[in-house]
Fold each of these.
Amino acid sequence: MRYLTAGETHGPQLTAIIEGMPSNLEFDFDLVNEQLARRQKGYGRGRRMQIEKDTVKVVGGVRHGRTTGAPIALVIENNDWKHWTTVMSVEPVEGGDEEKRRVHRPRPGHADLAGGLKYNLKDLRNVLERSSARETAARVACGAVARMLLREFGIKVAGQVLRIGEVEARRIDLPVDELIRVTEESPVRVVDKEAEAKMTALIDKAKQEGDSLGGIVECIVEGVPPGLGSHVQWDRKLDGRIAQAVVSINAFKGVEFGIGFEAAERPGSRVHDEIMYEKERGFYRASNRLGGFEGGMTNGMPIIVRGVMKPIPTLYKPLASVDIDTKEPFAAQVERSDACAVPAASVVMENVVAWEVAVAFLEKFGGDSIEEIRANYDNYLKQVGQY
């Protein structure tokens, strides 16, 4: 299973095509729109979120409420397009730089200059329009479709924010359903109410100063069977594929599983998870310090993965840059942005991880219909139970 996305931040729409989704899966339109709405929430978001009210339009691969096995085509319209029809026209446009909203002052930390050099572009808007985090709306929609598949087999996905800037939230272990409920009520998606108040105050301060904030988000996937992924080749290790997917999210710069980098500080006796067995439960681990993975494969414990998001590079107090025309120093160009997008990034990460788990699930229990996959899955659980 794979997907491709297309579209620009100020273009008419975002488009995604999913290939490989089995037939007869009940398509939950509300689930996709709920995930898109969750992505738009969060304390610290900018004015763009007041303009867009993201909803999905399915234009292929679904008939009478169920997938057909054909590619699924999803469209998310950009409401702001009406203000950019000339600037983002696919046809040639007459006029100077002002009319075309040409960008020639790259922003430090953004894709502007690297993309301009790579593709030999003299208008850096051609880079920033596609490298914008607006594209993550399409990725969330694809992840929401993956969640439909996972839900069929009792697999749940949740997320939370653990840090924004200098403020760290206490990590409170809750059942997944409770974690989803509590974080959904928080403007910064945390369980720790004391940290929530400090985080919102810090975001207000950054906004007033024209600055931005990053943070750490965590995703938990519960109900995953053992054996997703494989140890036999480097590119089949599921934790590696999840890590790549997480770092591919805009502004993400690091990833860890379980206790993560803390493992470097501990002896092995306080890192590895002891193996236990009960007749009713089968094999399980006494702890989950490795975040549900051993040898690149799921071990039956919940997947726990964290990602580090840097502060958004578009600052209203711009950093120094160089004009690509004159080569003279200049304050970097300012585009509309957020003071903090960490709570929204938590939602993006949930759906990106859900996609990778769903892909591995189909690789393991592959079939062309939900019925065939369920038969394969049930047979595997029987096999594991008899091991």
Note: The chain has a mean pLDDT of 94.
Amino acid sequence: MAEELSAQTVRDWGERYSNWGRWGEDDQLGTLNFITRARVLAACSIPTTGRVISCALPFHPPPVGSGPGGEGLSIPLPCATQWDALARVSYDGKMYNGRDVAGLSLNDASEDRFDQGRGGVIGRGVLLDLPRFTRRPWLENGTRIRPVDLDACAEAFGVTVEPGDTVLVRTGMMTRCREQQSWAGYFGGPAPGLSTLCARWIYEREIAAIATDTWGIEVRPYETPDCSQPLHLIAVRNMGLLVGEVFDLDTLAEACTEDRRYEFLFTAASLPTSGSASAPLNPLAIK
């Protein structure tokens, strides 16, 4: 690797690409602020066929259990297609927008809930299909997806990434699991994914949300030997980026290939969840 990335890189880029205070001191939406009403209305004009495609992996929760007070349903996450809450990532005792981690109680329904997707992520979606672009069935584990790769893929398929977009990046990892009839290593093992170098690309394009068909979005093994999840630390903690994981993009990829249109109306509202830093959902692409 030509670039020397480290924990110090994460700190430096975290400051450089920070959105703290951009939408006020109390903001908890982060980059979802880029999805304005005007952009929602514009996205509603994209569909031409009315075809609706789910991007969710079937959700198989564990047996019903009780919560801390003996009531409700307790489900460990991540275990399905989901958004990460901004409260999920922190360092130096701070999470997005400078909020203190100390004393945080996610079970307090009055604050720090999973509100990032509660109102509904609705807007323009874009698919960047890296395996189809590179003419391979899937990307191999450890493949670093760099900004130049994202730009070249978008150009090849005639789509532009615009402010307020939700960008779906297909690596083909789910395709490989199905082909090999094994999910061994999918959850937490080596994987293709976004390079930490994509932090600037995401920030400058004012992307609202980004998701992939992998367990953790970024390339594994991580590019930083002295810290884990470097892109998460920069993007979630400092940018306030909404991150989606375990998205099933295979059917959508086939549909985009058929009609040669890689943009669509996208919606993905999560359950209004307290006591959790993730929320399962059923993302829909309308073409």
Note: Residues 64-74, 106-117 have pLDDT under 50 and may be disordered.
Amino acid sequence: MRLPQWIAALVCLLALVVGVRAQRPFREYIPMEGRDSEAALPPDYQNPAELILGRLMYPSAGRGGRGGGNWLNGGTNWTVDYPRGDRTFAAAIRRLTRIDVRSVEQPVNPDDDNDIFLFPYMHAGMPTNWAFSDAQAAKIREYLLRGGFLVCDSFFGTQEWEGFLRGMQQIFPDREIAEMPDNDPIFKAGFAVEEKYQVGNFRSMLRNGNTYRADGSEPHWRAIRDDRGRIMVAINFNNDFGDSWQLADDPRYPEKFSYLGIRLGINYVIYAMTH
């Protein structure tokens, strides 16, 4: 059955508007780790794609990282492992899957109108001292309940967990955080991951030979789910997937960590796009 002409025209107009909004200008910020995390722009960075990896921008203050400062300029916790980790991960997705992913990430500010709803997958790095306004928390909550997916990564130990909880409880004050069972579909969404172990933090290895900070020796994979059981928030506690991505080609960083971090990261992306 053919659509009436005015409906067909409206559908085309809406598709155009969505397409234009989805291709908002690429933007870069100051990396928290300075030159250690810098990355050259790939030659195809302006090419459109079906998936753009979102990185959640958020205000941070207090203990547990580089609090204070102007988070709108970067250089604070949300830019840990950025941008090299994001771009290495995008390259891995391209190499190991058939997903058409843009070669560069997009930092996503929850205060920017409804832009957050354009990203089925978002990464939150080092969420140890994040603090949201009521409007920001409500926007992220709506994003997740409407089908969005957030990965929380690169934090270790009791103190950093407490900082994570303070911010997450602003978003979801009444939802349970639970361990993911070993047979959860997310662990088989792309790769069948049978063995999980801590994905180590590189700076801790250099400083004291540990793969973790503080008392974060035991890795956990936790989740917050919606009312249908879909994972909305994947929590890599006592793990550092960001390091496993950005240091995948560094001979000083154990290959086994990148092996696991990339495979599980790809599982998260596939899960986000299919659930």
Note: Residues 34-274 form a domain with the Rossmann fold fold (CATH 3.40.50.12140).
